[in-house]
Amino acid sequence: MTDENDIASLMAQRQPVWEALSSLWLDLPIDPPMLDSLARSLAESPFSWEAIEVMYKQEVLPVVHRNLSISGAWIWTGFDPEWLAEQCQRQMSRPTSRLSLNAWWILRKHRRLIGHHWQDLHQRVNQIRNHTASSE
Q: What is the pLDDT of residues 59-107, one digit of tens each?
């Protein structure tokens, strides 16, 4: 029973991170207020930036990257949280090597479309975490 509780707890911790990261692939402009909101969500998570980056590349990106590829069929209001969680959990269960063939193309697409925002987001998360740590 403890294992099931641990898994449920881990999924509950990951869910807001998945949702925040998936919003990078909505058909919306990525502007400073959006980045601030994402940074707050990510900074509040218990995960290191390195863990967030792995979650993004291996769990979220393979699921949502097609949103900006399908002409005229873009999602702009947000991915359904239940669908997103199910898909990200499915990605978690896949061996990393199985992702590698498709990962190269997806990561190129990431760099082209939102890569410049990624570093900015990382800096904002660090600033929030540093500010929070210094005020405690």
A: 998 888 877 665 555 666 789 999 999 999 999 887 765 555 566 667 7
Residue whose token pair is 């990624």: 118
Contact 84, 63 (CB under 8 A): yes
**CA dihedral of residues 96, 101, 104, 106 (deg, nearest 10):** -90
Residues 38 and 12: their CA atoms lie apart, in Å, by 17
Determine phi and psi for 47, rounding to 5 degrees: -95, 145
For the chain, the domains span 2-134
The continuous run of DSSP H or E covering 72 comes out as none
In angstroms, rounded to a whole number, what is the distance separating the alpha carbons of residues 134 and 136?
Answer: 6
Contacts of 21 (CB under 8 A, 6+ apart): 38, 42, 52, 55, 56, 60, 61
Would you tell me how many other CB atoms lie within 10 Å of the CB of residue 21? 25
Does the pTM surpass 0.85? The reply is no
Is there a contact between 125 and 49 (Cβ–Cβ < 8 Å)? Answer: yes
Round to whole Å and give the CA distance between 128 and 136. Answer: 12
